[in-house]
Design brief:
The protein starts with a helix and ends in a 7-residue tail after the last helix. The radius of gyration is 22 Å and the shape is globular. It has eleven helices and nine strands. Helix 2 links the parallel strand 1 and strand 2. The chain binds D-malate (MLT). D-malate binds next to helix 2, helix 6, helix 7 and strand 7.
């Protein structure tokens, strides 16, 4: 009897192991949803759709984008962090949702450093100071001067408290000593539409979102906040060239799964991401929009986890007081 029960539990254990291995080995057996925590048409949405096309080919299953906007990206990331940890619902996180948000939301429902299985870094994104075409300034010095003198009139547009556009423009406004009105949108796709239409005055946005509009001449760009100019928009001077060297900031975008997602599943998703970032056609589309593509070492789950931890600490130093605008 004792022998039988031992054999019996041995079989049960074998069955469990046998059940677990093929499940991960077979992943994915159906479509994968990527939650983009902002409205469609913005930088995160654009980049996920570009890399998603190639990842879907590697994985042999469709990648479906679901835009879950609100709370500067924290609504979609909260939902994603609570999804089943099987790799079928993953998220696009970024410097706002996984770096700045803890400093802006005292009651944030997720911990960016603990509640995720990082998949990999997708791209870095230089930030640009942009404005409506009729903004009465023709360079960065004039822009700063005008905003300082007209703080009661000028309106900034951003993608919600804690988002990249919000935190980087908080930084800009603290450097130049201004406090203008600020309007929150559900992403910088819609806020850029209103800047193009002239309904709001200026913003800080990621290069992939604004490069096509700068090339088309529908908005003004006063400076790119990176060490060097971007080949995608060569005529835009760096903020250092424009007289504001203190404003140097770049955002990042990355893929995350919920914590406890099986390691083999994360490895498959990472492999598909790495392949996409090595693909010539995908790289060209990202580079033409000004993205900075990470090298191979920078694309590992471990590198992303370390980046998140560093970013939370540095944004806590910069954004010490929650900003309620
Ligand atoms: C941000 O400001 O965080 C992003 O630009 C939002 C977006 O992807 O629309």
């Amino acid at each position: 009897m004792k022998l039988l029960s031992t054999i019996g539990s041995g079989i049960a254990a074998l069955a469990l192991v046998a059940g677990a291995v093929p499940a991960a080995a077979a992943f994915p057996e159906r479509a994968i949803t990527v939650i983009v925590p902002f409205a469609s048409g913005g930088p995160g949405d654009t980049v996920v759709r570009i890399i998603g096309e190639h990842m879907a080919r590697t994985l042999g299953q469709p990648i479906v984008v679901e835009n879950v906007a609100g709370g500067g990206g924290t609504t979609g990331i909260t939902r994603g962090s609570q999804a089943k940890a099987d790799g079928y619902i993953i998220m696009l996180g970024q410097m706002g949702t996984h770096g700045a948000a803890p400093a802006q939301y005292p009651h944030l429902k997720y911990d960016p450093a603990k509640d995720f299985a990082p998949i990999g870094l997708v791209a870095a994104m230089p930030i640009l100071i942009i404005a409506k075409k009729t903004f009465p300034a023709s360079n960065l010095r004039e822009f700063v001067d005008y905003v300082r003198k007209n703080q009661d009139k000028v309106v900034e547009a951003h993608a919600g408290v804690g988002s990249v556009s919000h935190t980087t423009c908080s930084l800009l406004q603290s450097i130049i000593g201004t406090k203008t009105a600020r309007v929150a949108y559900r992403g910088t796709g819609p806020s850029l539409n209103d800047i193009v239409a002239g309904q709001v005055d200026f913003g800080c946005d990621q290069i992939v979102n604004v490069a096509p509009q700068i090339q088309a001449g529908t908005i003004k760009a006063f400076g790119i906040a990176s060490v060097e100019r971007s080949a995608a928009i060569k005529d835009v001077p760096t903020t250092k060239e424009g007289g504001l060297p203190e404003f140097e900031v770049s955002a990042w975008l990355a893929l995350f799964a919920p914590k406890d997602t099986p390691q083999e599943v994360v490895a498959k998703l990472n492999d598909a991401l790495v392949n996409a970032l090595d693909d010539e056609g995908t790289r060209k589309r990202l580079l033409d929009l000004g993205s900075v593509i990470p090298d191979r070492a920078g694309r590992s789950p471990d590198a992303l986890q370390k980046l998140v931890v560093r970013e939370i600490a540095s944004w806590r130093r910069v954004l010490t007081v929650p900003d309620d605008q």
